[in-house]
Design goal:
The chain is of the alpha/beta class. The protein has 24 helices and 5 strands. A hairpin with a 6-residue loop joins strand 4 and strand 5. It is globular, with a radius of gyration of 24 Å.
């Protein structure tokens, strides 16, 4: 092996760190406007609850800590998320190394994450709770793997197990599926049977209940709020077709892992999947449960990113199943992953700098937030209360006017502030329902066209002062 090969293999995790650092810096350079999930977090800055609509609270709690530490919200948002993404790569590397004691295989598994765009691209472009639940899933998997290698599991290990389970559930509710898979595995897989069927597991259960109790209480008191969004997204309804359910599940899984698996097989060719019983059992049970869920709950809509946390271990399974690994093939695989990293960095930059050339419409990073603020200021529109239809508009206005108070509009909020001075209602084409809603109330609304940043295309926003 020459020095170049040694450098890539021995330092791949540092290459990932450099890659994510560059993404972080690019996000700071494109600051001035928010992505969708970022805006939701910025609107909740300084707000502490046991739950936030359809999401558990952990991401927002930690994000608020980052907001306090860093004055720039874009630094706080991007740094926290990229740290989580790095740890996902790092845990993949560590799990593979524990199971193989092989740096080459560890680098291959880690690099394989790049070939799963719903993770490698979508997590970087936006998303928040999906990132932290993926981190939590990989953390629990790492911990379970370490426990399977212990002859005697200590009491403190079970305390940590209960804590990690709580972290996962407080990250995002689909983490519960991961727990269910592991519990079912404990009946058929000897590697984790001795972990679950141990009286000390009661310690883990007790710790989890204690840590989760306040959030459970919140969910019970806000059940419709906590579940309605998920039901709506998955199109759970009485008009049901089982073939549609199976089709949307299959298409989502194909989008998620099929390109990676096909490319991986083309590269490495020979595999022995039998020797990896832990992951074989895991994926068989996981797929069976997902089929049961979409059929039983009559799900007619399914997104691949919803199950990214559950399927990322596929890269470990595939890598550990390689037969007769050839160094030259490993080298080309790692080089290709680095090339894709460079491509993602270029794409991220291009969609912001040249939106008219590379995308059908400008990205949300091209959102003319400062122009909106300047328009309101130049036209002497006074406001200290802002009623918004979604967090994207609210966060972008808030960044330039943090003194105002921001509220999501509804009948109660509208009636509360109607007739009071300096109350601004502002929205865009994503919330045109509000235009009709206000027209029915006899409220006249103005609209303004502004150019997106770096674009010749126009952005339209609507506003009125009540």
């Amino acid at each position: 092996m020459n020095k170049y090969k040694n450098f890539i293999i021995n330092n791949y995790i540092y290459i990932v760190a450099i890659y994510l650092t560059l993404f972080f810096l690019l996000r700071i350079l494109t600051s001035g406007s928010f992505e969708r999930d970022e805006s939701a977090q910025y609107i909740l800055e300084g707000v502490y609850k046991w739950g936030y609509n359809t999401q558990p609270p952990l991401y927002t709690w930690v994000q608020n800590l980052f907001f306090k530490i860093f004055n720039n919200p874009f630094v706080a948002l991007s740094l926290f998320k990229n740290m989580l993404i790095f740890f996902i790569y790092y845990l993949t590397y560590k799990i593979t190394y524990i199971l193989s004691n092989n740096k080459i295989l560890s680098a291959i598994a880690t690099s394989s994450l790049i070939f799963i765009p719903p993770f490698s691209w979508e997590f970087e472009r936006d998303l928040t709770h999906s990132v932290i639940v993926t981190f939590s899933t990989m953390l629990l998997l790492y911990f379970i793997i370490t426990l399977t290698n212990k002859k005697k599991i200590k009491t403190f290990d079970y305390i940590l197990l209960g804590s990690i389970v709580s972290i996962g559930i407080l990250s995002k509710y689909n983490f519960i599926l991961f727990i269910i898979v592991l519990l079912i595995m404990s009946f058929v897989n000897q590697q984790i049977k001795h972990i679950v069927f141990n009286k000390k597991i009661l310690i883990s259960i007790t710790v989890s209940i204690i840590l989760l109790l306040p959030h459970i209480y919140w969910v019970l008191n806000h059940f419709n709020v906590a579940t309605s969004g998920s039901i709506k997204k998955m199109d759970i309804s009485n008009s049901y077709n089982i073939f549609v359910s199976l089709k949307v599940l299959f298409m989502a899984l194909a989008e998620l892992i099929a390109p990676y698996i096909i490319l991986f097989i083309l590269f490495f060719k020979k595999f022995n999947f039998k020797k990896q019983k832990f992951f074989k059992d895991y994926f068989l049970i996981l797929i069976f449960i997902l089929i049961a869920i979409v059929v039983i709950f009559k799900i007619q809509y399914f997104k691949s990113r919803w199950v990214v946390p559950l399927f990322l271990p596929i890269v470990i399974y595939m890598t550990l199943s390689i037969k007769n690994l050839q160094i030259i093939i490993a080298k080309w695989w790692l080089n290709l992953s680095i090339l894709i990293m460079i491509g993602f960095l270029i794409s991220f930059t291009a969609r912001y700098k040249f939106p008219d050339l590379v995308s059908k419409e400008p990205s949300r990073f091209n959102y003319p937030a400062k122009k909106i603020y300047n328009y309101l200021k130049t036209n002497h529109i006074q406001y200290n209360k802002v009623l918004i239809a979604d967090s994207l508009m609210g966060a972008n206005i808030k960044y330039y006017n943090q003194k105002a108070n921001y509220y999501f509009i509804n009948d109660k909020i509208f009636n509360k502030f109607k007739g009071k001075k300096d109350t601004l209602i502002i929205f865009d084409n994503d919330s045109l329902w509000l235009l009709n809603w206000l027209n029915k109330k006899g409220i006249k609304v103005k609209y303004v066209k502004l150019k997106y940043k770096n674009s010749k295309r126009f952005y339209i926003f609507y506003f009125t002062v009540i």
